[in-house]
Amino acid sequence: MKKRFSILYTLISSIFIHSQSNTEIPELGNIYKQEIFMTQYEKDSTADALILEEICKVYPSKYKKYNYTKEYYVKIKFFSNTDLSKARIEIPYFKNSKLENIAGITYNLDENGNTIKTKLGEEYIKNTNFNNVVKGKSFAMPKVKEGSIIEYKYTISVNNYGIYDWYFQTDIPKLKTNYSAYFSSDDFKVRTIGYLTPKNISKTECKKNTMCSLIYEMDNVPAFKEEAFLTNKNNYISRLTFERSYIFDPYVKKGENREWNTIDKAIRNRYDDELDKTRFYKRELPDSILNEPNELTRAKKVFYFIQNHFTLDNNTDQYFYEAYKNKKGTIQQINLSLYNALKAANINNPNLVLLSTRANGFATKLHATVIDFNYRVVLVSIDGKKYFLDASHKHLPFGLIPFFCLNGDGRVFNQTKPSYWEPITSNSIPSNQKTIIRAKLNIEDNILEGKLKVVSNGYYAYSKRKQLALPKNSELLINSIEEKHPYVEINKSDFKNQKDVESPLLETYSVSFEDVISRGKYIKISNLMIGSSSLENPFKMKERMYPVDFGYAKEENFRISISLPKNIEITSIPKPEGIQLPNDDASYIFKADIKNHILTINFQYNINKKVFLSNQYESLKAFYDKMVKVQNSLIEFKVKDM
What we know:
Elements: H1 2-17, H2 33-36, E1 49-60, E2 68-78, E3 88-94, E4 98-109, E5 115-119, E6 125-129, E7 134-140, E8 149-157, E9 166-167, E10 174-184, E11 188-193, E12 199-203, E13 211-221, E14 239-244, H3 260-270, H4 278-284, H5 287-290, H6 295-309, E15 311-312, H7 320-326, E16 328-329, H8 331-344, E17 351-355, E18 375-382, E19 385-389, E20 409-413, E21 420-423, E22 431-442, E23 447-456, H9 458-468, H10 473-484, E24 488-496, E25 505-514, E26 517-518, E27 522-524, E28 548-549, E29 554-563, E30 568-572, E31 577-580, E32 586-595, E33 598-607, E34 611-612, H11 617-631, E35 634-639
Helix pairs in contact: 4-8, 6-8
């Protein structure tokens, strides 16, 4: 039966290669007159380039059974010289694979309106070695400039057991893109990702021990434009992915039922020894920790004991006892040590949490697997409150994990109970920053001098503590402030609670604002908002198809007090203003006042919701527009004769 299927596999695959005429890779050398004279893409006038046509065919390789070959063709129009990067191509592949049939042509118009063709010669194609495993070829299409059209194609057969995924979207728009594939039904499951759905032109029913074929097509595909507060574009960009029916999983044997209860059992068996170091930590933890009566205080003491004991070293291959003795460990070793130490201190039910970082994308929930996870933290629940813990990073307080971990849900594993999904949050520690400025205006020298005090908690404090721990620490932080605010000069600085991560980070500066008075008659409020993250609207798209993910709730508060000379008369001051989004998802309050020649400005804004969906984008964008506008308000005055 296997032999008959193998013969059928080879026969039908050869038929597929020479069929499907609507997905055939075209011969080079043919372009349409309207393409060469195009000056912009009417559906996106901002686009620097447009993919006019793109075709990809994937089918079983003739070189090796169950491996696959990809034929690729593309034609691209360039509207400007701003970005010609799509004319520079790099094709990586594993060694012992086969890349062939590279060909290309560049089209330009001469002075008389005639089309000039320049072929891609062998001299333009270079060999590249990325590492010992991956090599590649690279080439730059010749004579590409504004108005050019390029087309190129190649064939690649990769010597590994896999099939080629497909991106319908990229960072430039596409007029037409077509993908066809032919594969064994026993090998892969097809999944579409993203908000744009391709047309399913043709798809055969996939039955066991058969070959499947499919053709997907999309027309007028918009560019995928990245904007602030995006977790990972691969979570949302329109693409086609092929998942192996059998994925190698260290916790599931081939033929075993791929369910979470199977993985739970395997993890317990595999880590039984590593998850049972409680006796060791009963000996190592000081009595002052073990005898602490308050459970939360005891858990914090355990956390800081492990955090201070270990230094992160992801290159070490030491076993547990060596790592503990040498005080160096990987993220896994350090957080496993934290887990065991919490158990030794009789903290109620600590759990390991496997998660996928923001750069790694969301972990799939379509089937049970740990393949998507690339990070590990600890979860404890004390007095009904949940705390995610990561002792591998210095400067993190108890209850705060790195920002890159805030990515959807993680899988919580328990030694006795079934695992479950849990949203990864940082709600146990508020992230806020309060900025206080007290200054005096010198009208003759056009300078504002005084004190700046900043009080930071949560992620605001964590990012600064990391910076302050570097060589030339305070200098780096001061330089970053002066670079963002070039009219500000810091003359003196002082920092408190740099290492006391349980307390707010305190920064105090002696500052001067130069040229604070514009055109001799007004002060721009935004020039005083040192450290504000809302001086510019990060949301500029007409429509955003993917969520805005802030990662955590935040608050910024500014209180500015300026002593004015007695010959200054305020003639215009902005009215108080406040806006609150529905459900208090976000809000800001602004108020400016003058009393006894003291100008006070109060501004506070809150982002209370972690994720805003695409249907909330317009209101969030408008919220930021108004918030930026109020910060750019002017306080007008005149100088009286004395």
